[in-house]
Write a structure and sequence with these properties.
CATH topology of the largest domain: Isoleucyl-tRNA Synthetase, domain 2
Number of domains: 2
Strand order of the largest sheet: 10-8-9-6-5-13
Number of helices: 13
Strand content: 15-25%
Number of strands: 14
Largest sheet: 6 strands, mixed
Distance between the termini: 72 Å
Shape: elongated
Order of helices and strands: HHHEHHHHEHEEHEEEEEHHEEEHHEE
CATH superfamily of the largest domain: Valyl/Leucyl/Isoleucyl-tRNA synthetase, editing domain
CATH architecture of the largest domain: Alpha-Beta Complex
CATH class of the largest domain: Alpha Beta
Helix content: 25-40%
């Protein structure tokens, strides 16, 4: 009698996989392997659980395969590895689904409905696709228990998280810092990157070009561009690209302007029109050219006076450099408000006193006024700029970015 059966001419690999899965299920192979490793050194694996309000996709399966490999390797090297599947029941994805279902457009609708009833509706859908998840995860051969799963909405889970945080705090491992995060005004909460990606829309935003006079020569002005003009009262710096070329021109009005050489078209749009180019060139005279790094540290006067006095000597209102400044839009000089922009904050971290700068601007906001007495050098040009922005689900409110609500405890 032959030791092995003959190999068929054509092998049906999917069929072999299902036969293997059937064998594992009948003999409880996974459960038995975990039982036999009891008493061995524990190898803990902290997994980021998915939402069961949506179906698994390629990203879930790829990450799940990697996680399975790590756990199997730990088991095979003499460790006890408990593997329990988890479900993330918190966050806006669940609320987003309920808002669509019930036509909720704001906080008032939730309060009118009642928080308890709203939470009950959320709980009713958190396990909507749990069976589909189990079938898919088991089909790719991942060894993990669905019978002994956990849910983040259970008190036992939430209390364990707070217990861990308490232990970290007791050991002095918790620090206070700042992080610029997307913030939902209607939901009154910071958002994770995953939550922000739920509802992007193309919108029209005002793009404003502003003049910032040099302290040493008020007749010479930086020309900066921003698509978030509402952050101009909190301006703390201007950012240029250190390696790109900048130009100083004398306008026909007698005022000198500084901007990226490749972006003169922003100030003189007719330069882009071959028929009007010569006429546009008559409107200014080039004075000099230089790399952006030459502007580093140059002091300027901000467009609003709210923080001038309190920021004296703090390092604010100077030109800084950053590689994120490009030559494909704007003026090549970017208005920076570190309390509201992630890139602004990162580039400002390389400078001094960033902690004091952000703290001061986010605590004690300027008064709500548009009086011209507060704005001395406002816009030369205002246009509509089309951009892609995140919106907070059916509540139809754009998400902002701010560090005022993301101060770490």
């Amino acid at each position: 009698m032959p030791r092995y059966s003959d190999v068929p001419e054509r092998v049906d690999f999917p069929d072999q996989e299902t036969e293997t899965l059937k064998y594992w299920a009948e003999h409880k192979t996974f459960e038995e392997s975990v039982r036999r490793s009891e008493g061995k050194p524990i190898w803990s694996f902290y997994d980021g659980p998915p939402f069961a309000t949506g179906l698994p996709h390629y990203g879930h399966l790829l990450a799940g395969t990697i996680k399975d490999i790590m756990c199997r390797y730990a088991h095979q090297t003499g460790h006890y590895v408990e593997r329990r599947f988890g479900w993330d029941c918190h966050g806006l994805p669940v609320e987003f689904e309920i808002d669509k279902k019930l036509g909720i457009s704001g906080r008032e609708d939730v309060l009118k409905m009642g928080v308890a009833k709203y939470n009950a509706e959320c709980r009713s859908i958190v396990m909507r696709y749990s069976k589909e998840w189990e079938i898919t995860v088991k089909r790719i051969g991942r060894w993990i228990s669905f019978e002994n799963d956990y849910k983040t909405m259970h008190l036992s889970f939430m209390e364990s998280v707070w217990w861990v945080f308490g232990q970290l705090h007791a050991k002095g491992l918790v620090y206070r810092g700042f992080k610029v995060m997307p913030y939902s005004c209607p939901c009154n909460t910071p958002l994770s990157n995953f939550e922000v990606q739920q509802n992007y829309k193309t919108v029209d935003d005002p793009a404003v070009v502003c003049a910032f006079p040099l302290v040493s020569d008020p007749n010479t002005k930086f020309i900066a561009w921003t698509t978030t003009p509402w952050t101009l009262p909190s301006n703390l710096a201007l950012c240029v690209n250190p390696t790109m070329e900048y130009v100083k021109v004398e306008d026909e009005s007698g005022v000198n302007y500084i901007l990226m050489a490749a972006r003169l078209v922003q100030l003189y749009p007719d330069l882009a029109n071959p028929k009007k180019q010569k006429e546009a060139e008559k409107k200014f005279k080039e004075v000099e050219r230089f790399p952006g790094k030459q502007l580093l540290g140059t002091e300027y006067s901000p467009p609003f006076e709210y923080f001038i006095e309190r920021m004296k000597g703090s390092g604010a209102f100077k030109v800084i450099t950053g590689d994120f400044v490009t030559d494909d839009a704007g003026t090549g000089i970017v208005h920076c408000a570190p309390a509201f922009g992630e890139e602004d904050y990162k580039v400002r971290l390389r400078g001094a006193h960033v902690r004091a700068l952000v703290r001061r601007t986010t605590r004690g906001q300027p008064p709500h006024t548009h009086s011209r007495s507060h704005s001395r050098h406002f816009s030369h040009l205002r246009r509509i700029w089309q951009s892609v922005a995140p919106f907070c689900g059916p509540r139809r409110s754009a998400c902002s970015q701010s560090s005022a609500h993301s101060e770490l405890p």
